[in-house]
Amino acid sequence: MDEQERMEQGTGEILHPDLISSVNQDMPDEEMLYDLAELFRIFGDSTRIKILYVLFEAEMCVCDIAELLHMTQSAISHQLRVLKQSKLVKFRREGKTIYYSLADDHVRTIIGMGMEHLCE
Amino acid sequence: MDEQERMEQGTGEILHPDLISSVNQDMPDEEMLYDLAELFRIFGDSTRIKILYVLFEAEMCVCDIAELLHMTQSAISHQLRVLKQSKLVKFRREGKTIYYSLADDHVRTIIGMGMEHLCE
DNA sequence: ATATCATATGAACAGATGTTCAAATGAAAG
DNA sequence: CTTTCATTTGAACATCTGTTCATATGATAT
Predict the structure, then answer these.
(1) Which end of chain B is flanked by fewer CB atoms within 10 Å, N or C?
(2) Tell me: the pLDDT tens digits for B52-65?
(3) How far apart are alpha carbons A87 and A82 in whole angstroms?
(4) Segment holding B38, helix H or strand E
(5) Within 7 Å: CB of A12 and strand D?
(6) pLDDT tens digits, residue range B67-113?
(7) Protein A71 CA to nucleic acid C9 C1', in Å?
(8) Residue B98 near residue B91 (C-beta atoms within 8 A)
(9) Beta B97-102 vs B89-94: how paired, if at all?
(10) Distance (Å) from the C-alpha of residue B1 to the closest C-alpha of chain A?
């Protein structure tokens, strides 16, 4: 009844009201979905993917990563900051240099999933 | 020798030359890493994540999705185009309406991985 | 202290991205 | 054919994002 009335009100946009309310109940809350998108957004940049891939192999300092990727040390530092904020990498200081490494194995798994999807 | 010379040439940026060349060999090619980033970039938007999540439950037409997400039908259509191009969703026509659904189970797995990472 | 080196940071700029609006398909019904 | 409805499309616009450049930390060595 409600839905039928709305359908006649002018917009006339609702085709399957029952389906809509059913799906609506099973949706995670807005915030969770936002956080999820935000997580993937971090992986959605070549430079950051490369940095993470490099750290697959070994912990490494900023200038080494910059050299490896043929990029400015500043650019790398900015991106490491993003990765740090998302808890995807961690770091330790040793004198003047700072060594970065993967925060945990989730990074490997997620990137692995992506690779699998591509290779098909 | 080579590396030492370069270190003294001026920039003085290379700290661990051996590590660099070792890691360099194990890196996937540029294009693969770019595609990988591109794939994740698709997941890195709230609207697209929501659309995918909705399609977890059932195939659905454009105006239903728009209604469900409280968004313009045009905005949804634009995003479905992106998802279509990335082969993440497929569609079938039935008269005037077009029904979209997930292309395969990889989408579920990848989003599942992201969720797992968040819930820790 | 001063110099040097590794890294971080802030402002600025160019390029990418998402939504909106208006208009165009494309299929069914009158 | 014309109308209606679901969807697509293109241009315009505002916002976001990544890199660069110049400068600031912060630690070591002289």
Answers:
(1) N
(2) 999 998 999 999 99
(3) 9
(4) helix B30-43
(5) yes
(6) 999 999 999 999 999 999 999 999 999 999 999 999 988 899 999 98
(7) 18
(8) yes
(9) antiparallel
(10) 17
